TrEMBL record:
PANTHER family cross-referenced by the UniProt entry: OS02G0805600 PROTEIN, QUINONE OXIDOREDUCTASE PIG3-RELATED
Pfam families (UniProt xref): ADH_N, ADH_zinc_N_2
GO molecular function: NADPH binding; oxidoreductase activity, acting on NAD(P)H
Xref: CDD domains: p53_inducible_oxidoreductase
Keywords from the UniProt entry: NADP, Oxidoreductase
Entry-linked SMART domains: PKS_ER
Protein name: NAD(P)H-quinone oxidoreductase
Superkingdom of source: Bacteria
Organism: Leeia aquatica
Domain Enoyl reductase (ER): 18-326
NCBIfam families (UniProt xref): quinone_pig3 (TIGR02824)
Length: 332
């Protein structure tokens, strides 16, 4: 039984070849002046967690070495400079790390209230996805009203919320997914067209639709050249991952002729100040959509936090539609 000074958390065993995940008792963090201590109800599982586990995603300076970048839970302590939250408040939060644990500290300015109508657990599925969309499509790609968007991985934990958000905002949306069931789900979430990339080349479908203004790409590899051809003049291609390979061919002639922008975007490395501005914009723009039902929870499966290994296995199977969550309750 953990004491007031300890907690259980998932630890990566770097001594084992598979870097196994262990549920261990460790010291409980204490909030700095600008932080709150959250008793974790649920934590979102993201691909970066697996990459970090395997040593392929460096932890930012000063961040917790523990996995997990988004949680929901109850505020149980506040730093001396925190005025916007009180003990007992229920929040969801974007983290630099540390979410795979019974308790975690979070910057108070990156905490948000649980949307009306949402469960405490389901709210843990929101921060990473919403901040990624805000950072990628609005802060970097400068998405304008009515512009069309191609989103790869529409059934992913990020994709399911990106589709709902942009559909509610009135954008024509196109997406790809790995099977017909996932494509059907994407259509229900607001996509105008969803292409099964296991069976079809997506490019003729987008060409027939007349091309797009913006691409949110988590594939990279051979897709990059196709995106240049599919983008309208002035189009933007935002790369947030490279699951299809880190090397791509770029047609500089197309870049110049169509005045295209091709850039990479990461969220975790953004400054706290930028994340605070994102949080403010998300609260203003997206929270009404969450609370009036235009954006609905998309949680595929829930696992006890102690079974994080099972959740990572499910993540790598790519069969889920929406988010995978780890639940702190009953994990011990």
């Amino acid at each position: 039984m953990p004491s007031m000074l300890t907690m259980h958390a998932i630890i990566v065993d770097n001594r084992s070849p598979e870097r196994s995940l262990r549920w261990q008792e460790i010291a409980r963090p204490q909030p700095a002046p600008h932080q709150v201590l959250i008793k974790v109800a649920a934590c979102g599982v993201n691909r970066m967690d697996h990459l970090q586990r395997m040593g392929h995603y460096p932890v930012p300076d000063g961040a917790s070495p523990l996995l997990g970048v988004e949680v929901s839970g109850e505020v149980v302590a506040c730093g001396t400079q925190v005025s916007q939250w009180q003990v007992g408040d229920l929040v969801c939060a974007l983290l630099d790390g540390g979410g795979y644990a019974e308790y975690v500290v979070a910057d108070a300015r990156l905490c948000m209230p649980i949307p009306i109508g949402w469960t405490l657990e389901d709210a843990a599925s929101l921060p990473e996805a919403l901040f990624t969309v805000q950072n990628t499509l609005y802060d970097h790609a400068h998405l304008q009203p009515g512009e069309s968007v191609l989103i790869h991985g529409g059934s992913s934990g990020i994709g399911v919320y990106a589709l709902q958000w942009l559909a509610a905002a009135g954008h024509p949306l196109y997406t790809t997914a790995g099977n017909d069931e996932k494509c059907a789900a994407c259509l229900q979430l607001g996509a105008k067209q969803a292409i099964n990339y296991q069976q079809h080349d997506f490019t003729p479908f987008i060409e027939l639709a007349g091309g797009v203004d913006v691409v949110m790409d988590m594939v990279g590899g051979d897709y990059t050249l196709s995106h240049q051809r599919l983008c309208h003049t002035g189009g933007r291609i935002a790369i947030i991952a490279f699951q299809g390979g880190r090397h791509s061919e770029v047609d500089l002639g197309l870049m110049l002729a169509k005045r295209l922008q091709l850039f990479g975007v990461t969220l975790r490395a953004q400054s706290t100040e930028r994340k605070i501005r994102m949080a403010q914009q998300i609260r203003q723009t997206v929270w009404p959509m969450l609370e009036d039902g235009r954006i609905k929870p998309m949680v595929h499966a829930r696992y006890p936090m102690a079974d994080a290994e099972q959740a990572h296995h499910a993540l790598l199977q790519h069969r889920h539609v929406g988010k995978l969550l780890l639940l702190s309750k009953g994990a011990a």
